[in-house]
């Protein structure tokens, strides 16, 4: 009885230690506004590679999200979907990134008719370069962070606190201000 209790206590302490020692983003890990956006090449939901560098000359919204087909992530993706015509008319490319696999992205994109690429960051290397990776050892996911990248490839705006109900609208308002397009 005592040994079982002691094992549980030791296990609990080990879990807390693992969590405290886990990789979490620090402010200095997150690229600052005005800095060059970290380059990446990732497969989209159809298996086609998307290179950030190939989008130079366009405004790009790179939004990281935790998991396909979960309530908050679905709400955020669908808001970008609903505003996609307006974003496209402004010359903006939207890219969603999570650590889910391409098959999961394909099902998510099809289910909600998402018109923009969802990129599979298996292993979280890109999320880590953007300070968006939350790695707890056993589980890792992308934090809900968004970066607006200007046509020269520099980060023009960073969002670290995202309200899924209003985020797309907020991004559009900031893009209008940044681009001078109303």
What does this structure look like?
The chain has 182 residues and is of the alpha/beta class. The protein has one domain: Glutaredoxin. It contains six helices and nine strands. The strands form three sheets. The protein has a five-stranded mixed β-sheet. A hairpin with a 5-residue loop joins strand 1 and strand 2. It is globular and about 45 Å long. About 10% of the residues have low confidence.
Write the layout of secondary structure elements.
Elements: H1 2-20, E1 41-43, E2 49-51, E3 59-64, H2 71-82, H3 84-89, E4 92-98, H4 102-112, E5 118-120, H5 125-129, E6 133-135, E7 140-142, E8 146-149, E9 155-159, H6 167-179
Parallel strand pairs: 3-4, 4-5
Antiparallel strand pairs: 1-2, 3-8, 6-7, 8-9
Search tags:
182 residues; Glutaredoxin; alpha/beta; two-stranded antiparallel sheet
Rounded Rg: 18 Å
Q: What is the name of the CATH class?
A: Alpha Beta
* Terminal Cα span: 70 Å
Number of H/I helices: 6
- Estimate what percentage of residues fall within beta strands: 15-25%
CATH architecture: 3-Layer(aba) Sandwich
* Chain-averaged pLDDT: 88
> How many separate domains make up the residues?
1
Main beta-sheet annotation: 5 strands, mixed
Multimer state: single chain
Tally of extended strands? 9
The H-and-E topology, N to C, reads as HEEEHHEHEHEEEEH
CATH homologous superfamily, by name?
A: Glutaredoxin
Provide a concise account of the structure shown.
The chain is built from six helices and nine strands. By secondary structure, it is α/β, with parallel strands linked by helices.
């Amino acid at each position: 009885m005592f040994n079982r209790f002691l094992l549980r206590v030791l296990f609990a302490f080990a879990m807390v230690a693992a969590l405290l020692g886990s990789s979490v983003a620090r402010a200095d890990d997150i690229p600052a506004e005005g800095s060059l956006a970290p380059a990446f090449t990732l497969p989209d939901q159809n298996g086609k590679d998307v290179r950030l560098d190939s989008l130079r000359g366009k405004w790009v919204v790179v939004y990281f999200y935790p998991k396909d087909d979960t309530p908050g992530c679905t709400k955020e993706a669908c808001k970008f979907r609903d505003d996609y015509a307006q974003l496209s008319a402004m010359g903006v490319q939207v890219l969603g990134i999570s650590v889910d696999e391409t098959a999961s992205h394909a099902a998510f994109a099809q289910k909600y008719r998402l018109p923009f690429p969802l990129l599979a960051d298996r292993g979280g290397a890109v999320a880590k370069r953007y300070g968006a990776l939350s790695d707890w050892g056993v589980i890792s996911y992308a934090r809900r962070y968004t970066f607006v990248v200007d046509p020269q490839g520099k980060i023009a705006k960073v969002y670290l606190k995202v309200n899924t109900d209003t985020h797309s609208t907020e991004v559009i308002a900031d893009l209008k201000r940044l681009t001078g397009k109303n």
